Amino acid sequence: MIASPPLPTHAVLGIETSCDETAVAIYDGARGLLAHRLYSQAAMHAEYGGVVPELAARDHVGRVSALVAETLTAAGLRANQLAGIAYTAGPGLIGALLVGGSFAAGLAAATGAQLIPVHHLEGHLLAPMLETRRPEFPFLALLVSGGHTLLARVDGVGRYDIIGETLDDAAGEAFDKTAKALGLPYPGGPELAKLAATGQRGAFRFPRPMTDRPGLEFSFSGLKTSVLTALPRAITPQDRADLALAFEEAVTQTLAIKCQRALEQTGLSRLVVAGGVGANRRLRALLQSAAETQAFELYFPRPEFCTDNAAMIAFAGHARLAGAQPSDSGIAARSRWPLHTLAPA
Ligand code: KG4
Ligand code: ZN
């Protein structure tokens, strides 16, 4: 029997290995998201209280191949039916990035698919477009992750104007550091949110940094110091839950205040929230009620696409497919990569 020739598709496979999640997904221009898989290394890093870059890279090596095979099977595709292979090229841990990049380059060379380097934050910013109710351009984006906290005006793919940023710690970093101070296991952010859910208001109160002056900048390192100062007063388990709640309220209200200010300043009427902290329930509820009273449209990715995932990389890769450079240009891996340097798609 003669094997049938590969069917042409608009499917792009995305690989994400920038930190401690190995993730693979396939997005098809005509049919949407076909499959996505994720393996979290969190349990491995928990022993060390944070991500160990060398261990992260090694673990990606052991997982990525099987995860790609599994995702292709789930999507009902063969590798030679892919139009493009996208991978996170930065920012992130360099060793971890190189694993995904090398695998993607090898697969692209073997199949003839287009190799597409993707900016991790562009993936986060476009993640709400994976949902059925998706925002139209232009919109205001609040990107809150472990490494970044910024407000950007988004006029299209690759058209990002950063109008506010953190001067020190990212919101997710503040969650993680405060969680560590409270003795919570890694990854701290979701654990702190869980503890805060049993907290009661009023016992502790922390400042809403930089909301008392004009501007769209953030600063969260002082808040961490306030928590450390208050910590000796948190003796019982209930005290600690109360403290976690007060911290969560300070961060989420600060974010909400700046979002509303940015909407007023830009005149935009759509707000998109992306990045790991976007999974925080209190932040979602706060912005939801603001959207109702202030009459702006609010868009979130589903919580699993707020945190690191490959669906967002496959989607951004698909958006970048037409403009992608030939795959013999080598593997890109950048630990730092300013978002504003991206070209429009
Ligand atoms: O986007 P992401 O998965 O990775 C980066 O690109 O950084 O974001 C991870 C960050 C971590 O700091 C984590 O603690 C935080 O998002 N995070 C949360 C929640 N889920 C994840 N912070 C607060 N509440 C949550 N539910
Ligand atoms: Zn991320």
Secondary structure elements and pairings:
Layout: E1 11-16, E2 21-28, E3 32-40, H1 42-46, H2 53-75, E4 84-90, H3 94-111, E5 114-119, H4 120-126, E6 139-144, E7 149-156, E8 159-165, H5 171-181, H6 188-196, H7 221-230, H8 237-266, E9 270-274, H9 281-294, E10 297-299, H10 303-306, H11 311-320
Parallel strand pairs: 1-4, 4-5, 6-9, 9-10
Antiparallel strand pairs: 1-2, 2-3, 6-7, 7-8
Helix pairs in contact: 2-3, 4-11, 5-6, 5-7, 5-8, 6-8, 8-9
The chain binds 5'-O-[(R)-(carboxyoxy)(hydroxy)phosphoryl]adenosine (KG4) and zinc ion.
Question: Would you mind describing this structure in some detail?
Answer:
There is one protein chain. The protein contains eleven helices and ten strands. β4 (84-90), α3 (94-111) and β5 (114-119) form a beta-alpha-beta unit. The strands form two sheets. It has a five-stranded mixed β-sheet, with helices on both faces. A five-stranded mixed β-sheet has the order 8-7-6-9-10, sandwiched between helices. It has helices at 42-46, 53-75, 94-111, 120-126, 171-181, 188-196, 221-230, 237-266, 281-294, 303-306, 311-320; strands spanning 11-16, 21-28, 32-40, 84-90, 114-119, 139-144, 149-156, 159-165, 270-274, 297-299. The protein has two domains: 11-126 and 306-341, Nucleotidyltransferase, domain 5 (2-Layer Sandwich), CATH 3.30.420.40; 137-300, Nucleotidyltransferase, domain 5 (2-Layer Sandwich), CATH 3.30.420. The chain is α/β, with parallel strands linked by helices. Helix content is 41%, strand content 19%. The mean pLDDT is 94. It binds 5'-O-[(R)-(carboxyoxy)(hydroxy)phosphoryl]adenosine and zinc ion.
